[in-house]
């Protein structure tokens, strides 16, 4: 099998386990009468260690290649998702959040690095679109599978089912079935300066800001929709279906991305996507209908799903030679720092003021990001 399809298949399987665990952890905590702040803490823990370790992980990947980090990450996701099956307690949920989060960070950085390195510059937008389609597929499968499994089999068995998705990636990576680009040799790389050198680059800094806003919005969606659905009386299966509408939208817009990429400039696409996402967050608190909520989630999925392939292409092109993995790691660090802080802040807001301020606060950030993207577009 060619490297790109195999990378996507393995990543999709691992992402089903990772994404499903986020939904299952949230709903299991709610089932055990956890407050929104506790749920926010659990989701924030998914991002805590990635925020601290992503740059080092990126440098490690630049040095040794992607095979070993992918294997370590797959094993970690397996152990993290199986833990609540063995120990069905709140303590196990905290361990799952930490271990699964840092393990999938290795998979995420490694997979994007491998695709960027193996792709000619002219093919990167399309190839990153294929990777994004893979993520959309797993994002569609994971919440629906998780919701149905919870309703039919209970929480512990759901975590075991999610862990089984990592078995094939572990076997394939252990057998070295994935041919990947060799790591850069020291004489091929740019001088290894401070990570702050990457932030001083204006093009990279703008990309990091835009990606951070988008990913925080995605994370708030993952954290808040299960809580909102529970508050309006939806079952786990219906919550999974609602979240599946979001994933279906990301799949649809990414399927069209090869067509869009040749007709829309990246920063124009970012400005429109951020605006659409902000409007979606504004109207979420006003609905308790499954059908209407699915429509809003589809709109939100279009907004958050469109920019990623274009942004990743720009990031890989702007990174210094031999530091693409480090740049991806820095992206993950900045994103996960926000993801660590924001669920705690919004969890506290949800506990004190209800869920509406959470959605509206995210909408304000997205509207600000849209204005920022428009200014960047006019400067270029």
Detailed description of the structure:
With 380 residues, the protein is mainly alpha-helical. It has helices at 3-31, 36-64, 67-86, 90-118, 124-153, 155-164, 167-174, 196-200, 202-231, 236-255, 257-261, 266-283, 290-305, 308-318, 324-353, 356-379. It is built from 16 helices and no strands. The termini are far apart. It has a single domain (3-179, 194-379), classed as MFS general substrate transporter like domains (Growth Hormone, Chain: A, Up-down Bundle). The radius of gyration is 19 Å and the shape is globular. Helices cover 83% and strands 0% of the residues.
Task: Produce the secondary structure layout.
Blueprint: H1 3-31, H2 36-64, H3 67-86, H4 90-118, H5 124-153, H6 155-164, H7 167-174, H8 196-200, H9 202-231, H10 236-255, H11 257-261, H12 266-283, H13 290-305, H14 308-318, H15 324-353, H16 356-379
Helix pairs in contact: 1-2, 1-3, 1-4, 1-5, 1-6, 1-9, 2-4, 2-15, 3-4, 3-6, 3-7, 4-15, 5-6, 5-10, 5-14, 9-10, 9-14, 9-15, 9-16, 10-13, 12-13, 12-16
The average pLDDT score comes to 83
Domains (count) = 1
What is the CA-CA span between the terminal residues? 40 Å
Q: Helix tally?
A: 16
Quick one: overall form?
A: globular
Give helix % range: over 70%
The H-level CATH homologous superfamily, spelled out, is MFS general substrate transporter like domains
Name of the CATH first level: Mainly Alpha
Structural class: mainly alpha
Radius of gyration, taken over Cα atoms and rounded to an integer in Å: 19 Å
For this structure, the CATH topology is: Growth Hormone, Chain: A
Which sheet architecture does the biggest sheet show?
Answer: none
């Amino acid at each position: 099998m060619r490297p790109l399809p195999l990378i996507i298949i393995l990543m999709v399987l691992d992402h089903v386990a990772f994404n499903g665990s986020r939904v299952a952890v949230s709903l299991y905590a709610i089932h055990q009468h956890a407050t929104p702040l506790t749920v926010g803490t659990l989701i924030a823990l998914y991002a805590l260690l990635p925020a601290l370790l992503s740059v080092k992980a990126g440098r490690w990947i630049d040095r040794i290649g992607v095979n070993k980090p992918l294997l370590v990450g797959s094993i970690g996701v397996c152990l993290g998702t199986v833990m609540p099956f063995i120990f069905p307690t709140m303590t196990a949920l905290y361990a799952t959040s930490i271990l699964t989060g840092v393990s999938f960070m290795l998979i995420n950085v490694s997979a994007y690095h491998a695709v960027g390195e193996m792709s000619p510059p002219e093919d990167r937008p399309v190839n990153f679109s294929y990777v994004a389609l893979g993520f959309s597929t797993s994002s569609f499968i994971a919440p629906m599978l998780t919701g149905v499994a919870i309703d039919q089999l209970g929480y512990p068995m759901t975590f075991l089912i999610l862990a089984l998705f990592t078995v094939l990636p572990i076997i394939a990576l252990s057998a070295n079935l994935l041919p990947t680009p060799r790591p850069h040799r020291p004489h091929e790389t740019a001088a290894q300066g401070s990570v702050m050198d990457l932030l001083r680059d204006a093009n990279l800094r703008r990309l990091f800001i835009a990606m951070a806003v988008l990913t925080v919005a995605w994370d708030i969606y993952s954290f808040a929709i299960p809580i909102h659905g529970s508050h309006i009386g939806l079952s786990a299966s219906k919550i999974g279906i609602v979240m599946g509408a979001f994933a279906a939208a990301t799949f649809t817009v990414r399927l069209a991305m090869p067509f869009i990429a040749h007709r829309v400039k990246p920063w124009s696409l970012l400005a429109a996507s951020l605006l659409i996402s902000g409007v979606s967050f504004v109207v979420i608190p006003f609905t308790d209908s499954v059908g209407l909520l699915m429509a809003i989630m589809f709109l939100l999925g279009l907004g958050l799903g469109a920019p990623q392939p274009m942004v990743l292409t720009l990031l890989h092109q702007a990174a210094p030679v031999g530091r693409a993995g480090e740049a991806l790691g820095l992206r993950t660090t900045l994103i996960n720092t926000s993801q660590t802080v924001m669920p705690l802040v919004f969890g506290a807001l949800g506990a004190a003021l209800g869920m509406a301020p959470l959605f509206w606060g995210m909408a304000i950030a997205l509207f600000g990001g849209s204005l920022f993207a428009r200014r960047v577009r006019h400067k270029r």
